[in-house]
Amino acid sequence: MDSKEKAFVNAKDIINQFTVIIRTAYIHDPGNIAVTTAMERFIALMSPFIEAEGELMLELRGEFFYINDKRVRYPLEFLPNFDFLSREFRRRGLGSIAFKDTLQHEDIRIFLKAFIASIFSETTFETLEKSMSGIDSIKVGKLKKIRTAGEGEPDVRRVVKKTYFNAVSHTRAVMSKLKAGEEVSMRKTKRVVESMVDLILEEEQLLIGMTSIKDYDEYTYNHSVNVSILSVALGQRIGLNRKALTELGIVALFHDIGKIEVPKEILNKSTSFTEQEWDIVKKHPFWGVRALLRMKKIDYTSIRSAITSFEHHMYCDLSGYPKPRQPLELDFYSKIVTLTDNYDGMTSSRVYARIPMPPDKALSLMMEKAGTQLDPTLFKFFTNMMGIFPIGTLVMLDTKELGLVYQSGTMFLNRPQVLVIINSRAEKVESYVVDLAEKDSDSKFVRTIVKTMDPNKYKINLADYLL
Ligand SMILES: [Fe+2]
Ligand SMILES: [Fe+2]
What we know:
- The protein is of the alpha+beta class.
- About 50% of the residues lie in helices and about 10% in strands.
- The protein has 3 domains: about 5-140, no CATH class; about 155-385, Hypothetical protein af1432, CATH 1.10.3210; about 395-465, no CATH class.
């Protein structure tokens, strides 16, 4: 092994340690001993590398980090840190950081300050770049988008919206074709789901935001797409690759396909089901299997879909339905779909005439089922993804401002970004986004969530704000 290769062995540790510095700097002042210690270790890890190569270029391309053009692989225990760092990069439009051999402690300190402050600026990357312009040993580069969705936020939102509604209408088409006894192939579904997966990899939070809009006429189609999005996003968090994510997305999209056989009058009932009606509804897992195995070609994905359709109401402890004859462990995809289906069902209004539950309440109810009905590890990843206050939650701040959670907090789960719609004088205003991680000059948080509220009570239509 030459010195270059030897240095590369540390690549994953370098990135991991870099994340540790940033996480520590979020909590402590850059002069704090915890930050200094983390920085020393970082520099020690980097030195042999910079000595061998003259420069260390850390770059984010798509979902992966590269060091000097070489993709960095890492063990699973590093995943939360790598995930955190890539989101921090993306939030700032930051694509690369080059460290040169003249690197000093002080330079890193300046970088950390600039890095953290930049998130509160409207032009995140430009602000960061400007603050670093006097430092020669650290150079930042702009994030290159792999997919060109046009420049700027509004276009990204447009693409997200289009992808979402495209998936809804595709689901509607597939379900009505199956209902009419026509043959359906998996090919188009695969393409639709692939485009969702690509978008989730880049704009996870925006897609999750789409699932929080529950105001629709046709519950089943939107619900299927929501469960698919939430499942793929969760799958991404636990490190599934793109191929597996696509498969999971399809499986999740089809979990309720058996509902095509449930009479519309029952499905759209606005009052509770009678016992006989329940017996019919409870057959949809079987009917799903039947529909899926009738697809044009039976392949691995259709079989996995059939399994999940069959298992998605069983629960991990088999306390649901149908009851299997022998004890069994749910398929991995079924465990994921059980979780996301539960969440979307509880937070939607059209499921079995239930009143929609605020997201935080749904999560706390699910917490009670984690370890019995729901898989506890997956649930942990899920809450981490949704934040304590999922997107779309209506919250009251200590400033008396009222707003909707817009993007979950990367550093503090209880400090998301909030879209304020009612100001502290109880006036409806042109909405503006505030970041609850923001601190004032005394290092105190500027705003804090006091409580969550029910948007229906206030006649607030999420779709008006999030679309
Ligand atoms: Fe179902
Ligand atoms: Fe469902």
